[in-house]
Amino acid sequence: MHPIRSQNLDFYLEYDMTENPDSYNFFLRHAYLKVGSLLLGRSFTTFIDSAVLPDVDTGSAPGQIFLKRDQIRWTRLFRDDALELALALEQPDSQISAPNCACIRNYDDDHIPYVASRLTWWADWGQLSISGMLRSLRWQQNEQSLSKTVGGAGLSGRIKLGVVDDLRFMANYGNGLGRFITSGAYADASLARDFSELNPHPVVSMLAAYQHYWSEKWRSTFSLSASQSSLSGSASEQMTKRARSAQVNLFWSPVPDLSIGLEFLHGQRQLLNKQDGELNRLMFSVRYTL
């Protein structure tokens, strides 16, 4: 952090080393510069408030939005720093499914960035955020191109329960939110059978999580999550219609920066053709924060 004309210059970098069968690959999570009210780089989409994300495996909850975007974000504090307004232009792309095909293809040649906004209110009892998003879906093949303007809205918050416990929640609805849902089960839209139109898929998603501290060194989080999409007539019968999950964990922190935990997840998914399945997973993790 360095001062520039009475403003701080912050640089943040976070990455993973993702394992392949023969090697570890560099995976960028966050990388941004922040000068005063302006953020430039890659971080969580402005559509969500990252402070309400629960302390669970975030890659599996089907009702949660957990997306990072390259972006330009401007923020402004109001009313003695109790309100924050954030506005951003974010990296565009579209996830489109072909007629009668369960495959979802990513199209990243969109020319119009997402417009995302979020208003956050802090109080003694916790915090509350209202967010909105406007984006253009785009499909192109050879000389043919289709586009559709879609949007979404979200409500999220964190409510303090006692000294350290809290309840966290998020609820989102909109056309073209499929790209934003964590599990990657939903497309933003599907192509009409004659390739003449893009049909957006309205999606609703919800998540609630309770975090409880058993003692200074032991804590648990219990989370419930669900999402559902309204699919068009051109969507494949193999596309996901709804999904839900329950997660519970136990973490031990022998020192403040170290967390050792065990988490159990139960998930269910149903396709448009009524086929369904379930997932049960036990995960062990060790996390050290520098």
Largest sheet: 15 strands, antiparallel
What percentage of residues falls in helices of 4 or more residues? under 10%
**Total beta strands:** 19
Strands of the biggest beta sheet: in what spatial order?
1-2-3-4-5-6-9-10-11-12-15-16-17-18-19
List unreliable stretches of 5+ residues. none
Number of helices: 0
Distance between the termini: 16 Å
Order of helical and strand elements = EEEEEEEEEEEEEEEEEEE
Quickly give the structural class. Answer: mainly beta
Shape label: globular
C-alpha Rg (nearest Å): 20 Å
Question: How much strand content do the residues show?
Answer: over 45%
Q: How many domains?
A: 2
| Mean pLDDT rating | 89
Provide a descriptive summary of the structure in words.
- The strands form two sheets. The chain has a 15-stranded antiparallel sheet, with no helix packed on it. It has a four-stranded mixed sheet with strand order 8-7-13-14, with no helix packed on it.
- It folds into two domains: 36 residues, no CATH class; 199 residues, no CATH class.
- It starts with a strand and ends with a strand.
- 0% of the residues lie in helices and 64% in strands.
- The protein is mostly beta strands and 290 residues long.
Give short descriptive properties of this protein.
290 residues; mainly beta; 2 domains; 0% helix
Short description:
With 290 residues, the protein is mostly beta strands. It is built from no helices and 19 strands. The mean pLDDT is 89.
